Amino acid sequence: MASRIRQEDRECPLSSTAEHVGEWWTLLLLHDAFDGYTRFDQFQQSLGISSSMLTTRLRTLVDDGLLERRPYQTHPVRHEYVLTELGRSLRPVMVALAAWGNSRLRPEERSMILVDAGTGEEVEPVVVDARTGRRLDDSAAYVFTAGPAASPAMRERYDGRTPVPGAAP
Known about the structure:
Largest sheet: 2 strands, antiparallel
Strand content: 5-15%
Helix content: 40-55%
CATH architecture of the domain at 1-87: Orthogonal Bundle
CATH class of the domain at 1-87: Mainly Alpha
Shape: globular
Order of helices and strands: HHHHHEEHHH
CATH superfamily of the domain at 1-87: Winged helix-like DNA-binding domain superfamily/Winged helix DNA-binding domain
Number of helices: 8
CATH topology of the domain at 1-87: Arc Repressor Mutant, subunit A
Strand order of the largest sheet: 1-2
Number of strands: 2
Structural class: mainly alpha
């Protein structure tokens, strides 16, 4: 199967991201971690997942550097799973995914909403360019182009698009 994957797909940041967090169990585990769950039994109770499946998923998240496994009890040894800095950096992505899902529902159909912790007011998350503050939802205003490390195939895919400063021609 891997031999049929094109080079440009292997180097695409969307492909590599999906490789780490594209599985729905992974997203649900990360969601629970963002909600403060750290212990195996908390994850298991929340998700209704088998012990072996949960062990495998947690190990993958630890191996990928998204969670850290730490002992919290010595007799018997028990571990908790804590978000790493890399894992915490996924929060805006998770918020954006949840907002996208909610945008397809009527307000009364939403089972979870994002609110301002201080006021309790519902917020509407958007993705913006950090430099300009402009929303990135306009697909005509923002396009992908080949970056500095792009292979010839990736450069060909994006040939004719605005070049990135510092990218080799």
